[in-house]
């Protein structure tokens, strides 16, 4: 790597080598493109990856981490977490949520600031959410804006200002009364997002289908947590997914459909991608591992099903899980995020909001499950080339780190092990060091809520070290959380890049060029 190495001199390393190498020995580094052979070392300087090479020079000040034959992957980028949101007062804040993130190998989170429908400016809302994070976060973070009232003023005047502030993505809801947008609003925002280059995330479920079923279920006395899943059938996700893909195609706007849970809906995405439309999709651990059976609770606590209330709901058939795994392996999904949106179970204002005077009402249960800490270990257990593997190591890195970084404007900084990138790294255990794997238990997790839906599940590996910009922030065998709550920096993001498809393609049923008349 160096043209010249001078030996036996008296080196004033304070100046000449004011660098800080972390030398990683005997390791395999997994990036989105390849697995490098054992023996390649990573040199880190000033929090950045400076070089990859063999026999990197080191001196007395060089800190050495021996990765002991373990895999090294880029720090996780969890592009969908809910921290400190107004509508989940018993959920995680930036401190507890990001603490949980680094313990599970995630070094970057993208959290939401949520506009209230009554707000006619999004600036105070954003400033407020940024204050909740500043100096209270263990990992780096960026902010997406949930737009619930996209006024013409906001779209024309405020959105361009957000770009300068590094907020380059919005989430739109097609369901939930306090958040949902109608088709004309969706179209307006898509047109603006296209013009400005924003990345647009969509929660796709048909609101009226859900309301109709919920009202009728309630009238019939069916209000247990299990009926949450009955009230949000796959056809609600299917219809909204097809509709938003159509609106995105019409307006030639790249989108990402978040937290997809069912095969019928996923097929629309796959078909659109085959036509080279820039339609991205996300799925989450809960849709790979959990079934709606969980909503029935257990004999000791019949309300415990509330813990697994999330939207879209858990599906009932193992075939649905299989379908999501196929989407993971075959490239339909661009991101694998946690949608970490928990509420404390056993606490006023938490999940037990849905339990009043002995009556269960799923309508009142806050939606969302915890998962920011378990996301990487759960997926990593199935990555590789073993008999039970379901995705390649490269796909693992793409889904959990490099593609979300690209899609949300962090390419060049996050999501890769390459010179110039932030030294955000996960060092996993080598084969000899963790033979029995790890059993997931609430008591070992670092979030602020009181349960995990993955209790008792077994994973093969766990992050041994997590490094944030060259600093060890998680050392599983040496103190656990060793980072500081002020380590996390706000990420001013650039414009996101399309990962699949392209813009400027032909529109179903329109002649080439017809769109130019009205664009
Ligand atoms: O149930 C969920 N996912 N709640 C969180 C909010 C959302 O829609 O992502
Ligand atoms: Zn959502
Ligand atoms: Zn969410
Ligand atoms: Zn309390």
UniProtKB/TrEMBL annotation:
MF (Gene Ontology): dihydropyrimidinase activity; metal ion binding
PTM description: Carbamylation allows a single lysine to coordinate two divalent metal cations.
Stored Pfam families: Amidohydro_1
Entry keyword set: Hydrolase, Metal-binding
Cellular component per GO, a single term: cytoplasm
Provenance organism: Lachnellula subtilissima
Family membership: Belongs to the metallo-dependent hydrolases superfamily. Hydantoinase/dihydropyrimidinase family.
Cofactor: Zn(2+)
Residues with PTM N6-carboxylysine: 171
EC number: 3.5.2.2
Catalytic reactions of this protein: 5,6-dihydrouracil + H2O = 3-(carbamoylamino)propanoate + H(+)
Enzyme class of the recorded protein, top EC level: hydrolase
CDD domains assigned to the protein according to its UniProt record, in alphabetical order: D-HYD
InterPro entries named among the record's database cross-references: Amidohydro-rel, Hydantoinase/dihydroPyrase, Metal-dep_hydrolase_composite, Metal_Hydrolase, Metallo-dep_Hydrolases_sf
Domain named Amidohydrolase-related: residues: 71-473
Stored NCBIfam families: D-hydantoinase
Residues annotated as signal peptide: none
Protein name in the entry: dihydropyrimidinase
């Amino acid at each position: 790597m160096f043209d010249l190495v001078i030996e036996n001199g008296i080196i004033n390393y304070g100046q000449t080598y004011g660098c800080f190498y972390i030398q990683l020995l005997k390791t395999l580094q997994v990036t989105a493109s390849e697995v490098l052979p054992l023996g390649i070392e990573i040199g880190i300087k000033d929090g950045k990856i400076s070089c990859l090479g063999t026999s990197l020079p080191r001196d007395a000040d060089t800190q050495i981490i021996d990765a002991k034959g373990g895999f090294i992957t880029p720090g996780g980028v969890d592009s969908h977490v809910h921290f400190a949101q107004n509508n989940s007062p018993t959920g995680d804040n930036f401190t507890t949520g990001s603490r949980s993130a680094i313990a599970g190998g995630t070094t970057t989170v993208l959290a939401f600031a949520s506009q209230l429908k009554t707000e006619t400016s999004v600036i105070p809302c954003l400033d407020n959410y940024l204050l909740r994070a500043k100096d209270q976060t263990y990992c780096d973070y960026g902010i997406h804006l949930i737009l619930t009232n996209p006024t013409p003023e906001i779209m024309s005047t405020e959105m361009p200002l957000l770009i300068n502030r590094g907020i380059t993505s919005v989430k739109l809801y097609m369901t939930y009364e306090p958040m949902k947008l109608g088709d004309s609003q969706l179209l307006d925002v898509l047109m603006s997002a296209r013009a400005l280059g924003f990345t647009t995330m969509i929660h796709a479920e048909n609101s009226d289908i859900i309301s109709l079923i919920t009202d009728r279920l309630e009238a019939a006395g069916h209000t247990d947590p299990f009926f949450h899943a009955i009230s949000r059938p796959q056809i609600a996700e299917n219809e909204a997914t097809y509709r938003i893909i159509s609106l995105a195609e019409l307006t030639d706007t790249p989108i990402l459909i978040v937290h997809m849970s069912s095969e019928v809906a996923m097929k629309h995405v796959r078909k659109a991608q085959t036509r080279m439309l820039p339609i991205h999709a996300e799925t989450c651990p809960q849709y790979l591992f959990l079934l709606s059976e969980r909503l029935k609770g257990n004999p000791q606590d019949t309300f415990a099903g509330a813990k697994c209330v999330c939207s879209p709901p858990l599906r009932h058939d193992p075939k649905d899980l299989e379908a999501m795994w196929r989407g993971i392996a075959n490239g339909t999904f661009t991101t694998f995020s946690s949608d970490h949106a928990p509420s404390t179970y056993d606490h006023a204002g938490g999940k037990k909001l849905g339990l009043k005077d002995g009556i269960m009402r799923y309508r009142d249960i806050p939606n969302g499950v915890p998962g920011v800490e378990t996301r990487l270990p759960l997926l990593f257990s199935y990555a590789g080339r073993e008999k039970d593997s379901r995705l390649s190591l490269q796909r693992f890195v793409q889904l959990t780190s490099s593609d979300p970084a690209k899609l949300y404007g962090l390419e060049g900084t996050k999501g890769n092990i390459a010179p110039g990138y932030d030294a955000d790294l996960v060092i996993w255990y080598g084969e000899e060091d963790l033979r029995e794997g790890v059993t997931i238990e609430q008591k070992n997790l670092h979030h602020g809520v009181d349960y995990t839906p993955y209790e008792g599940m077994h994973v093969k590996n766990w992050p041994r070290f997590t490094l944030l910009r060259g600093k060890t922030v998680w050392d599983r065998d040496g103190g656990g959380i060793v980072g500081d709550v002020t380590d996390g920096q706000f990420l001013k993001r650039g414009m996101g890049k399309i990962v699949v498809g392209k813009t400027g393609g032909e529109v179903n049923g329109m002649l080439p060029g017809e769109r130019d008349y009205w664009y």
